[in-house]
Specification:
alpha/beta; Rossmann fold; nine-stranded mixed sheet; 7 helices; binds zinc ion
């Protein structure tokens, strides 16, 4: 069986300029995520690679994305440096069927806001407080192997209201030491693609070295895998009268000539 092709994408900026982040993630957040996925993959189901903002076309060429089944996205400081043409390309692949896992501050990434169509705003606080992620849907594939909840000793707080469309499936809700709550694990379908937003992952805490987080990311990769491919998802073909499945004749006037392309 062909392995699932997974890319861990990271803007890779904090690691270059911030001492704390560099110490926690000397190889970059993308490599910590990739390693975590590989550590979980005893069954050898995934082929995991990485990509960063700094690579040509952000490491996301059309050819590479064409072969990608699931894309993980970590961004924060450099959302606006992601070229719009690449956002278009990722969106099209999601609509065709590629899975997308958006992490932590990726809530404000261009691709997530595009796919959600809402503000994606939230409240936040950087105080190293405790977070308890409650599983809201114990039968869901993304929580396979977890108990009732997981605890993270030091996290950044994200609080409601979270400016997202109502999720198709809710997987986690977080409680924070300071009292706020947050919808930390949410699933949507867009076109043929599955999207999972997962909240933990602040860059000054070693979240991506945590085995339970690795388990969730691994589960998410398997859940988001394409169920099929809708390669022509962006098309809107004009079906000529003579190609109708049943024999018909034109009964009304039309704006377009027979077989002419529509406006896009
Ligand atoms: Zn953060």
């Amino acid at each position: 069986m062909k392995k699932l092709s997974v890319i861990a994408w990271n803007e890779n900026v904090h690691e270059q300029v911030n001492k704390v982040v560099k110490e926690i993630y000397p190889g970059g957040i993308h490599n910590a995520i990739a390693e975590g996925l590989r550590n979980q993959d005893g069954d050898g189901l995934l082929e995991v690679s990485t990509a960063t903002l700094q690579e040509p076309e952000h490491g996301l060429t059309a050819e590479r994305l064409e072969d990608t089944d699931v894309l993980f996205w970590w961004g924060h400081r450099a959302h606006n440096e992601v070229v719009d043409a690449i956002v278009d390309r990722v969106q099209e692949r999601v609509l065709q069927g590629m899975g997308l896992v958006v992490l932590h501050s990726g809530h404000f990434s261009k691709i997530f806001k595009r796919l959600m169509g809402t503000s994606c705003g939230l409240k936040w606080r950087e105080a190293g407080e405790r977070e308890r992620l409650w599983v809201t849907n114990p039968g869901h594939p993304i929580v396979r192997g977890l108990g009732d909840c997981i605890e993270l000793e030091h996290t950044e707080m994200y609080g409601e209201p979270f400016g997202i469309p109502v999720p198709d499936e809710q997987v986690f809700i977080s409680w924070f030491e300071g009292g706020e709550v947050f919808r930390s694990g949410c699933c949507w379908h867009r076109g043929n693609g599955k999207i999972f937003y997962f909240r933990p992952g602040h860059e000054t805490y070693p979240i991506y070295h945590n085995g339970q987080i690795h388990q969730i990311l691994y589960n998410a990769a398997l859940w988001a895998a394409p169920q099929g491919a809708w390669s022509g998802v962006m098309n809107a073909p004009n079906v000529p009268v003579e190609h109708a499945r049943e024999k018909i004749r034109r009964k009304g006037e039309s704006l377009h000539a027979e077989g002419e392309e529509g406006f896009k």
